[in-house]
Amino acid sequence: MSAKHQRVILIDYGDGTTEYRITNGSKELKELTDKLKGDPSVEYYEVVKATTKELWVNPNCSPED
Fold first, then answer.
1. Which stretch of DSSP H or E encloses residue 28?
2. Which of 44, 50, 58, 12 is nearest to 28 (CA)?
């Protein structure tokens, strides 16, 4: 599948860890987001296109003092 159909899911867990997952196609994207919605350890996730460069910051986090 071409890169224009790839999506990256940026995931922030409640324990402070983060990860990203690359998906190919809408079926795989839907399966993963449904799984994340039901996961109590996931604090926040965001889906972005793989062809863009973005800085990702969890809007629920504040800078550490």
1. helix 26-37
2. 50
Q: Which residues pair with 21 in a beta bridge?
A: 9
Per the domain annotation, does 33 fall within a domain? Answer: yes
Q: How many domains, the chain?
A: 1
In this structure, is residue 59 part of a structural domain?
A: no
- Yes or no: say if 8 and 44 are a contact pair by the CB < 8 Å rule: no
Residue range 39-59, pLDDT digits in tens: 999 999 999 887 655 566 666
> How many angstroms separate the most distant Cα atoms in the chain?
44
pTM above 0.85, yes or no: no
Is residue 29 within 8 Å of 23, Cβ to Cβ?
yes
47 is written with which tokens? 């889906």
Residue 65 lies inside a defined structural domain of this protein: no
Residue found by looking up tokens 């999506």 in the block? 7
